[in-house]
Design brief:
By secondary structure, this protein is an all-alpha fold. Helix content is 74%, strand content 0%.
């Protein structure tokens, strides 16, 4: 069955426009970038996007591509990198893959029959698809940070409810159905926030130079955490029994606090404006990093200029 969507993707991919940024910045094909933008936006008003890409192209010419090691060592990019890593961890260590990988076993453990558990698992997948579409519509209205806070907060609440339902399932028969509702609600809030927001935030925190290295570190973090949850959850379930979701509850609380205190809103902000937000919180970049940032406005070593950018952007 997995062959079917793969074939469908192969047939549909030629119809997809190329990335406008790739066409404009990497290939320097402005006319093709305009056409791709018009197709994406379903509008002829794309000059604002073109001007932003033109500014990014000028910045890239003065900005060297940096390696993963250089990125890790860079004091000026340490906070954006930390945010990118924690956002990826908030996705995988939320406990969502415990539901995706072991949902049928969780539902039978909550008191459902094998047949009922399988239908509930189908419900998990269906809700994930449906709510992801809803998340796409909400993303540019509510903002990335806001959606992530709602998503992580909702997952925290329902992870507690799932634990309570597991503890009292033997006392009240109908609690098993309530446990299913709590689990499906857990998936709903994941789709609203942590399901997609970490990938967008990571891409929007970095300009062209450090972005490839940052995305590489983010993907590595994401899959290591995914592997840890998939490997360790059966052991956790054997040791913790009905309390198995409490470690995820604690982690979700930490991720919510971190997002509230440290993660900026990137909606409708350019790379220069986002960089200015971070520059207000750090000291001037060391001189040995000047070759990384060049004269890009977003990473200028001129603190006064950065302060003015920050004021206007806020």
């Amino acid at each position: 069955l997995a062959v079917v969507p793969a074939i469908l993707q192969m047939l549909l991919l030629p119809m997809c426009p190329e990335s406008p940024r790739y066409l404009f910045i990497t290939k320097q094909r402005e006319d093709e970038a305009r056409r791709a933008l018009r197709k994406f936006r379903a509008s002829n008003h794309v000059e604002e996007d073109i001007e932003e890409m033109r500014a990014e192209q000028r910045a890239q010419q003065a900005e060297a591509r940096i390696s993963m090691l250089q990125l890790i060592r860079s004091s000026s990019l340490r906070m954006p990198l930390c945010i990118a890593v924690v956002m990826q961890l908030s996705q995988q260590l939320s406990g969502i893959n415990a539901v995706f990988y072991y949902s049928t076993g969780l539902f039978t453990g909550a008191g459902l029959t094998d047949s009922q558990a399988k239908f509930a698992t189908i419900g998990v997948g269906s809700i994930m698809v449906g709510m992801t579409l809803v998340s796409i519509m909400l993303m540019d209205r509510a903002g990335r940070r806001t959606l992530h806070l709602y998503g992580v907060g909702g997952m925290f609440v329902f992870s507690i409810f799932i634990t309570i339902a597991m503890l009292i399932k033997d006392i009240l028969d109908w609690i098993s159905y309530l446990a299913v509702i709590f689990t499906l609600s857990f998936v709903v809030f994941f789709a609203v926030g942590p399901g997609s927001i970490p990938w967008l935030i990571t891409a929007e925190l970095f300009s062209q130079g450090p972005r490839p290295a940052a995305m590489s570190i983010a993907v590595l973090t994401n899959w290591i955490a995914n592997w840890l949850v998939g490997t360790c959850f059966p052991l956790m379930r054997a040791r913790l029994s009905s309390y198995v979701f409490l470690p995820f509850s604690a982690l979700l609380a930490i991720f919510w606090i971190f997002t509230y205190k440290r993660v900026p809103e990137t909606k409708n902000k350019t790379f220069e404006e986002i960089a200015a937000l971070f520059r207000r919180k750090i000291n001037r970049a060391p001189s040995d990093e000047s070759h990384i940032y060049g004269t890009q406005p977003g990473y200028s070593s001129n603190d006064t200029q950065g302060g003015e950018i920050a004021k206007t952007s806020l």
